[in-house]
Amino acid sequence: MEYFHNHNNLREIEGKLIHDPQRFNSGISNSTRCVLVSGPVIVGAGPSGLAVAACLKENGVPSLILERSNCIASLWQLKTYDRLRLHLPKEFCELPLMPFPQHFPTYPTKSQFIDYLEDYATKFEINPVFNQTVDNAQFDQTLGFWRVRTTTTTTWSSNSNSDSNSNSNSNSNNSRGEEEAAVTTTTTEYVCRWLVVATGENAEVVMPDFKGLEEFGGPIVHTSLYKSGEVFRGKRVLVVGSGNSGMEVCLDLCHHNAMPSIVVRDTVHILPREMFGRSTFGLSMWLLKWLPITLVDRLLLIIAWLIFGDTSKLGLARPKMGPLQLKNLTGKTPVLDVGTFDKIKSGDIKLCSSIKRLMHQAVEFIDGSVENFDAIILATGYKSNVPYWLKDREMFSEEDGLPRKPFPNGWKGDYGLYAVGFTKRGLLGASMDAKRIAADIGQCWNSESRYPTSFDRSF
């Protein structure tokens, strides 16, 4: 179907939308504001969404980003701990078309990365529409377009008697100056030819359901709410999850004189962040140009053994599969150590087996031991939320919310549907997909005759 190539076509689309009986069957009422978007709609204003928008602009294609939060990169700005730094060197984390400032360190801090993203949005004039929660997105076979429905909830207060001249019938029972609060919900339907899903792998927190959860009595928080170990000073804290976040939270707790323990439920690869003065990741990428992945894995493990020794003696058994092979197959990232291992070795961080049940300020583990804790921090990760709102069962798996096709083929679906930020390869993978998506849409955009100006019409 050609894109709004003349005024008559635009009026036809508007007419179909106004009189479409499906508006009522799908929950779209006549009061719903409808916006026709000339370019792609991008759901999510994280690094992936920003990268796509910038690459599209470079290809001459306008776009519209919808973001449920009130800022860009909400995961970084609102749900990360203070000591967080990029785990990989900055050259592997930059978004397309704009490198990091030269004065930034090799591993930028959280605040530096946020500044970089803000500058990125400014440079490419990316202005997301915030506070837009996407409830439903589906392809309309009749129209040949995507229909993306969002809701915005606004709480406001007004002085019930502040304008007596304009409202002589105001409630006389309300005293002067009394405020009334109201909540309004606005529904908007965006109609577009292309839909880019950029909500990523980390849209919703994963919260395990432990037996006895209500009995514990102390604070139980996800790392998305953890900022600093200062509030846990002198406390016995159990961290659940032995990935990069769990390990770094334990280190932060040590720096604030807390007493952390960490649950290690599975095998884990621990690698030094740097080898021979180079980043482990960068060295791996260089070696993969010349050697097979199995040999590179073997070299990495030999160097790790020389640095750490046999980690299994401390309770950190390694997977049978090498770290790079495991990452490619399952997406499980090795832990890049920044000092936590020394704390484990010294006994400042204690390793625990899997949890059997929670008790009053205590935890029973599957090995039968019981230990007392003042707080529990859940470093249990995040998951995709795509199945909850995208009414497409072909491109994304309903089980995990990730594209069914493995990298590098999971970025494109049918009917103008795209995905970015689901590669399990971090910012580097997101940048690769952003370029592919922009080139694909740009080719279609530039080859078709279309309505000559970008439009945003409501009715």
From TrEMBL:
Q: Which residues does the annotated region (Disordered) include?
A: 154-182
Query: Which cofactors does it use?
Result: FAD
Any one Gene Ontology BP term: auxin biosynthetic process
Coiled-coil residues: none
Gene Ontology MF: a single term: indole-3-pyruvate monooxygenase activity
Q: What catalytic activity does the UniProt entry give for this protein?
A: indole-3-pyruvate + NADPH + O2 + H(+) = (indol-3-yl)acetate + CO2 + NADP(+) + H2O
Query: From start to end residue, where is composition biased (Low complexity)?
Result: 154-175
A Pfam family assignment: FMO-like
UniProt KW Signal keyword: no
Q: In which pathway does it act?
A: Plant hormone metabolism; auxin biosynthesis
Its Enzyme Commission number(s) read: 1.-.-.-
Q: Which keywords belong to this entry?
A: Auxin biosynthesis, FAD, Flavoprotein, Monooxygenase, NADP, Oxidoreductase
The record's annotation in PANTHER family points to:
FLAVIN-BINDING MONOOXYGENASE-LIKE PROTEIN (AFU_ORTHOLOGUE AFUA_4G09220), INDOLE-3-PYRUVATE MONOOXYGENASE YUCCA6
The record's comment on protein family reads: Belongs to the FMO family.
Protein name per Swiss-Prot or TrEMBL: Flavin-containing monooxygenase
Q: What is the scientific name of the source organism? A: Beta vulgaris subsp. vulgaris
Source lineage: Eukaryota, Viridiplantae, Streptophyta, Embryophyta, Tracheophyta
